[in-house]
């Protein structure tokens, strides 16, 4: 069974009564915070591996973490180089034609994407913003509920500790009174023993005189 450790911060005021204790506690807290934890709490979720199924994004994330510069873009793919030899060979001209066709197809796809963006992009962006606003409202609502729950828990803890604190104070006062009564009884017993011893000695002296 796990031990449940709890304090009574709404009742205990030893740190306020004794400032040197607070200094010791602050020093101990700073010392503990400076040490790395040997193990994480069981409730802490395991570390999430980002982009586990995408090596390209993993490599990009590693580049950003290493603060490396982004590699320059390869602009050769957007150029139309002619054959280097004069006159060019059939293979060089075929390669140049294939490159020109690829560039033309790329520009056609870009034009199609721009047309689709102009037609549907604004509405898609509005819908996306609406969804983000709804998510933000839901998160804010959840946050407010957690704050209210936290306040309610702290209020219940304060009321419980105030009630228990009064009982502890009453028990401590009763314990102090009982200890005082026991001490008074022991002192009275000692006084009676001294008086009894004196009377016994007196009786012995009288018996010897008689």
Automatic annotation (TrEMBL):
Top-level division of the source organism's lineage: Eukaryota
CC annotations in GO: catalytic step 2 spliceosome; precatalytic spliceosome; Prp19 complex
Keyword Coiled coil: yes
Cellular location(s): Nucleus
Keyword field contains Nucleus: yes
Keyword tags: Coiled coil, mRNA processing, mRNA splicing, Nucleus, Spliceosome
Predominant location category: nucleus
Name of protein: Breast carcinoma amplified sequence 2
Lineage, opening ranks: Eukaryota, Fungi, Dikarya, Basidiomycota, Agaricomycotina
């Amino acid at each position: 069974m796990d031990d449940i450790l709890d304090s009574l911060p709404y009742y205990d005021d030893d740190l306020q009564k004794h400032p040197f204790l607070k200094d010791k506690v602050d020093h101990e807290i700073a010392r503990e915070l400076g040490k790395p934890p040997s193990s994480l709490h069981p409730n802490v979720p395991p570390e999430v591996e980002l982009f586990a199924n995408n090596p390209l994004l993993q490599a990009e994330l590693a580049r950003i973490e290493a603060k490396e510069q982004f590699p320059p873009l390869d602009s050769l793919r957007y150029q139309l180089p002619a054959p280097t030899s004069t006159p060019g060979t059939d293979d060089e001209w075929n390669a140049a034609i294939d490159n020109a066709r690829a560039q033309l197809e790329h520009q056609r796809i870009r034009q199609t994407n721009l047309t689709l963006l102009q037609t549907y992009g604004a509405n898609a962006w509005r819908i996306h913003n609406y969804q983000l606003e709804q998510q933000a409202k839901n998160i804010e609502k959840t946050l407010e509920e957690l704050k209210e729950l936290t306040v309610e828990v702290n209020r219940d803890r304060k009321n419980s500790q105030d009630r228990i604190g009064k009982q502890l104070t009453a028990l401590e006062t009763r314990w102090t009174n009982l200890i005082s009564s026991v001490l008074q009884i022991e002192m009275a017993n000692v006084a009676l023993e001294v008086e009894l011893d004196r009377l016994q000695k007196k009786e012995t002296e009288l018996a010897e005189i008689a």
